[in-house]
């Protein structure tokens, strides 16, 4: 439990007892509800709250990841209605920081998931649960090098510029390629996490760069759009495509060979462990400041193995 939360309780500033503070709503607010990845976070959150008599869980998010103002409003509304705790995947590292600070000042414990807040926000939330996105990007880059070698052109299809997960993931990928190969980077291109945008962008990239040896789609909707464009262009199998995340569409693309691999995060674990962290804090316990929820490189060879099935959704 954070120091301010303890101090508020000790000083009697809040008008409810500590036991009453333990009960109530835990608001899970993600980047968008229109994604299987975030719906899998919802499933994990629901699993953590199942059987709880003191707590309820709500799940919300904007229509699109780029609707940052809507997400800010959702967090502000959660604070105003006095939720017991918040699990938040911030769409923008800076825009959400003031709201998280207000939650902290209100004595509401916050678990940040998936994407980090901006510099200066440290101390206003209790724990950060995420894939180590830099490591995930590096794993994807090594898989690319293993498949295509160290010469040629690789396109990078990204999602929302400046988001914490994107900075680590795409940065890890491009920096690793630069340090360990002579591969030329084409892009990155930003889909705003819209599948149709990614499809159109990838179609243009493939047409403009017939000599591509590889392409990386850095999140679920981007990778799906990328894969569909590859199929439509008849390029499946002629270049190495690596995706990110693991819904049914991406699994089908791995099985069919459109994707050589996809890096899959523990999205279920983000929801489950995020809610559990808030429950632990409300019960007076402590949590680790950083919890790594992991990543698995899923290929045709291991897609049916337990290590992959445990993270696919």
Automatic annotation (TrEMBL):
<feature type="domain" description="Periplasmic binding protein">
    <location>
        <begin position="26"/>
        <end position="285"/>
    </location>
</feature>
<dbReference type="Pfam" id="PF13407">
    <property type="entry name" value="Peripla_BP_4"/>
</dbReference>
<comment type="similarity">
    <text>Belongs to the bacterial solute-binding protein 2 family.</text>
</comment>
<feature type="signal peptide">
    <location>
        <begin position="1"/>
        <end position="22"/>
    </location>
</feature>
<protein>
    <submittedName>
        <fullName>Substrate-binding domain-containing protein</fullName>
    </submittedName>
</protein>
<keyword id="KW-0732">Signal</keyword>
<dbReference type="InterPro" id="IPR028082">
    <property type="entry name" value="Peripla_BP_I"/>
</dbReference>
<dbReference type="InterPro" id="IPR025997">
    <property type="entry name" value="SBP_2_dom"/>
</dbReference>
<dbReference type="GO" id="GO:0030313">
    <property type="term" value="C:cell envelope"/>
</dbReference>
<dbReference type="GO" id="GO:0030246">
    <property type="term" value="F:carbohydrate binding"/>
</dbReference>
């Amino acid at each position: 439990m954070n120091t301010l939360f303890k101090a508020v309780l000790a000083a009697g500033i809040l008008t409810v007892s500590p036991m009453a503070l333990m009960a109530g709503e835990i608001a899970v607010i993600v980047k968008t509800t229109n994604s299987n990845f975030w719906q899998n976070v919802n499933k994990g959150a629901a699993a953590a709250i199942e059987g709880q008599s003191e707590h309820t869980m709500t799940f919300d998010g904007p229509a699109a990841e780029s609707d940052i103002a809507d997400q800010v409003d959702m967090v502000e509304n959660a604070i105003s209605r006095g939720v017991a705790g918040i699990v938040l995947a911030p769409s923008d590292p800076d825009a959400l920081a003031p709201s998280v600070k207000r939650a902290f000042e209100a004595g509401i414990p916050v678990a940040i998931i998936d994407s980090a807040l901006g510099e200066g926000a440290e101390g206003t939330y209790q724990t950060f649960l995420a894939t180590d996105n830099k490591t995930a990007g590096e794993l994807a880059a090594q898989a690319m090098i293993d498949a295509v070698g160290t010469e040629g052109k690789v396109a990078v299809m990204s999602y929302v510029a400046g988001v914490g997960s994107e900075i680590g993931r795409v940065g890890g990928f491009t920096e690793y390629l630069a340090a360990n190969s002579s591969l030329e980077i084409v892009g990155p291109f930003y889909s705003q996490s819209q599948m149709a945008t990614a499809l159109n962008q990838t179609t243009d990239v493939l047409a403009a760069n017939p000599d591509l040896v590889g392409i990386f789609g850095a999140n679920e909707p981007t990778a799906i759009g990328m894969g569909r464009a590859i199929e439509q262009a008849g390029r499946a199998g002629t270049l190495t495509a690596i995706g990110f995340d693991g819904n049914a569409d991406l699994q089908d693309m791995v099985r069919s060979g459109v994707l050589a691999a996809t890096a899959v995060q523990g999205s279920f674990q983000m929801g489950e462990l995020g809610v559990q962290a808030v429950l632990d804090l409300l019960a007076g316990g402590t949590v680790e400041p950083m919890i790594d929820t992991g990543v698995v490189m899923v290929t045709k060879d291991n897609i049916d193995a337990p290590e992959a099935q445990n993270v696919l959704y």
